[in-house]
Specification:
243 residues; alpha/beta; OB fold (Dihydrolipoamide Acetyltransferase, E2P); five-stranded antiparallel β-sheet; 30% helix
């Protein structure tokens, strides 16, 4: 059963979507909201699998709502009356983009994609058991007008730049307003390692490890990036990787 939440400032629009979902199996509407700040509180409490999300709303947009989520992002289907947002929606890797009024068949097609992605992610997940983000969880990243949904498995490196962190995945390097310490608290040590005050590396991206100056280590990632590991953290890395 997929647990869905509808977020739209128009009550009639929310009711229309709920009515359509009543005809579709394996979908349960666990909550709805028309206000972004209220919706954020509900998302934290209900932890839905899917957001059926309007974009243009009073006060804050759907994109701003996603940017304020703390932790993993649910799957998202954008539902809006403004087609000029279509390209941006797909740039963030949303599952689908539906125009109002929503057609039941198009909604069914979108939900098939949702079910498949959720099933794939559950099958590949490796429970960490400590409440932290799993390697297959997806997060929402926003840098200026650009934004992405990204599976943590694809993120090879986090690099501190003052009060910001640069995130390396694919050919992208967005800069997000987070501290490396905050990320350390959210990421599982099973998959991510704090190499130094400036870097967190994805252990799955490690190609090889070499000895370095003053008892430290040099980690070489699969993309060729070289990261110096502090002497203190080198001891911990050796223990973890049985070097």
């Amino acid at each position: 059963m997929i647990r869905a939440m509808i977020i739209d400032d128009e009550r009639l629009a929310r009711q229309e979507i709920k009515s359509l979902l009543e005809n579709i199996s394996d979908i349960e509407v666990v909550a709805e909201s028309g206000v972004v700040d209220e919706a954020l509180d509900i998302i934290e409490k209900e932890n839905p699998d899917l957001l059926l999300l309007d974009i243009q709303m009073p006060g804050k947009t759907g994109f701003e709502l996603l940017d304020e989520l703390d932790g993993k992002a649910p799957e998202v289907i954008f539902i809006t009356a403004y087609d000029e947002y279509a390209l941006k929606a797909f740039e963030v890797n949303a599952l689908d983009y539906l125009m109002k009024p929503v057609e039941e068949e198009r909604l069914r097609e979108s939900l098939i994609k949702v079910k498949k992605r959720i099933a794939d992610r559950q099958n590949q997940a490796e429970p960490v058991g400590d409440g932290k983000l799993d390697i297959k969880d997806q997060v929402f990243l926003k840098d200026g007008e650009k934004c992405w949904f990204v599976e943590l498995d694809k993120v090879r490196l986090f690099e501190s730049e003052g009060n910001y962190v640069r995130v390396y995945f694919d050919d992208q390097r967005p800069l997000i307003l987070k501290s490396l310490n905050a990320l350390t608290d959210r990421l599982s040590e099973k998959f991510f390692f704090r190499a130094s005050r400036k870097h967190i590396i994805n252990l799955r991206w490690v190609e090889k490890v070499e000895t370095w100056f003053n008892g430290g280590l040099l980690v070489i990632l699969k993309d060729g990036t070289k990261i110096e590991v502090s002497r203190r953290q080198s001891v911990k890395l050796k223990e973890m990787m049985a070097l």
